[in-house]
Amino acid sequence: MPTTPGIYLMKDQYDTIIYVGKAKNLKQRVRTYFQKNNQHSKKVLRMIFNIHDFEIIQVDTELDALLLECQLIQKYHPLYNHQMNHTLQYSYVTISASGIELSNSMSDYSLGPFRQYKKIPVVSQILSEIYQMPWVNHITMHTLVKQLPEMHDIPMTQRLEEITTFFQGSEPFALDWMTKRIVRLSEQLHFELAQTLMEQLELLQSFFSQTQELYHFSQQEELIFSLPLTATMKKYYQVSFGQIIHTSVLSSNECFQPIPPQSTPLLLTKTTIDPVVILMYYMKKTSKKG
Hints:
By secondary structure, the protein is an alpha+beta fold. It is 43% helix and 20% strand. The protein has a three-stranded antiparallel sheet. Strands 5-4-6 form a three-stranded antiparallel sheet, with helices on one face. Strands 7-8-9 form a three-stranded antiparallel sheet, with helices on one face. The longest helix is centred in the last third of the chain and has 28 residues, at 191-218. The mean pLDDT is 94.
């Protein structure tokens, strides 16, 4: 087994790929499956029991392994992979005067896709209550009006626009409104309810931050960075609108020659969003180490 980065594909007796994994060191990673380890979960033990054969694919860097792993998981949908294996469940959001609708398919007016598909219904409900939308339960609405009476003076078109910009990751008006609700409840000594809203605010902040970060990264026309291979060799990556468009392996005395960047942003879809997120977080991680 090589000690280089790469991908390993676990196969069952029918030659079906049941797991795709990545490693910075293939030998070190793959051997862990075939050594006694009390830390293995029942799921991993079941997978090991069903391994009949495995295949490896060597790549240059850990980043290459991460991206190839994603590509192969999306292609084969292995039984024992969880992450990046549920792209069909990623949600789109359509906002209108009749409600916030969730969908598994993209339309001309939808936003997304959103990888945090399990959080979307909760986020939608919180936003609906903040902006006192007409589809909110009338009993709940009675309480909301007391918490944020000034919302009554905000035109419906503006409320819909602010919800839209929140899902786009461009304007966090909703966070400010939620903060006002919490302050008002605290002033009225409703500390328990204020604590509940604090937890909702943290959820909104996390969701908005991730959305904003992804949007900003995917809109950058050109980024160039490198990863070390040996003491004298590096692999250079040219990124345009969230996707790698050119790479070169060069020695320390060679100069990287970029190609013209993309002319239009990448359309984020259920297939393309995971590679963009992987690239974004990997660049963020390596820049912090640097």
